[in-house]
């Protein structure tokens, strides 16, 4: 009878793990502790302990620790069920599958939940009295043509009513900002951006305006109208579930850059637009809403650079706004006063 040999050093892990262990040996965790909910040592503590003992990148550790804390608190606060969580996972999976190069459902979800607007506010805090920022959105094109102040940004035949935009860029001392470039982009009178038209060959309703040395600039264009964000996917389903709509108020996007000053990306909204208070992406701020007026005098239209034949509705919309830019130093100083010590 063959003798039974006592097994020594039994194989505990497969080849893939053995290969990994050669490079990195996880530290032991206090597994003898009770991880069950209801004791002083919770699943949340266990996750945090694992990450704290292994993660070597402090900012990653800070972010993931806060994320796990909030996610676990969400599950506890709502007594989240298996079935509900499965629905969430199914929804996120669909968001991934339905995202394309032209429509990112995760960006839409971030926008719809107000997270994109919040991150923008945290990233670009503005000292009191300076123009608020808001998100760039998906239609910015870095290669817009550079044009002098006073140019027309709308090609002949662009849909919509004509508008004259008259801006001035000042610093916090009330002085005109020198050397500013103003990137402008907007939808037309049908709420459509040039890049959304199939077969687009050249820029329309957009341009990089060289402001005058006293900070003033103007352009002739088209009064923008409201338009919807994409709502044919999971993001749209969520809006409907919440009783919300996908329509953004009319607006013009601006990106201002001037030497020595903090860059500003923002948008302005005419006060007559619908949907100002129910923006699906929470980018509309009270300080960015403008009263615009109608100009009926043909002599004034001529002063603005319009030919009578271009003004088909008997009026030109006149939009004025004063932008206030903080200097780079003012923003750094402001950020220092707002700094919060990261919790690790
Ligand atoms: Fe937009």
UniProtKB/TrEMBL annotation:
<comment type="similarity">
    <text>Belongs to the intradiol ring-cleavage dioxygenase family.</text>
</comment>
<keyword id="KW-0223">Dioxygenase</keyword>
<dbReference type="Pfam" id="PF04444">
    <property type="entry name" value="Dioxygenase_N"/>
</dbReference>
<keyword id="KW-0560">Oxidoreductase</keyword>
<protein>
    <submittedName>
        <fullName>Hydroxyquinol 1,2-dioxygenase</fullName>
    </submittedName>
</protein>
<dbReference type="InterPro" id="IPR050770">
    <property type="entry name" value="Intradiol_RC_Dioxygenase"/>
</dbReference>
<dbReference type="GO" id="GO:0008199">
    <property type="term" value="F:ferric iron binding"/>
</dbReference>
<dbReference type="InterPro" id="IPR000627">
    <property type="entry name" value="Intradiol_dOase_C"/>
</dbReference>
<dbReference type="GO" id="GO:0009712">
    <property type="term" value="P:catechol-containing compound metabolic process"/>
</dbReference>
<keyword id="KW-0408">Iron</keyword>
<dbReference type="InterPro" id="IPR015889">
    <property type="entry name" value="Intradiol_dOase_core"/>
</dbReference>
<dbReference type="GO" id="GO:0018576">
    <property type="term" value="F:catechol 1,2-dioxygenase activity"/>
</dbReference>
<dbReference type="Pfam" id="PF00775">
    <property type="entry name" value="Dioxygenase_C"/>
</dbReference>
<feature type="domain" description="Intradiol ring-cleavage dioxygenases">
    <location>
        <begin position="165"/>
        <end position="193"/>
    </location>
</feature>
<dbReference type="InterPro" id="IPR007535">
    <property type="entry name" value="Catechol_dOase_N"/>
</dbReference>
<keyword id="KW-0479">Metal-binding</keyword>
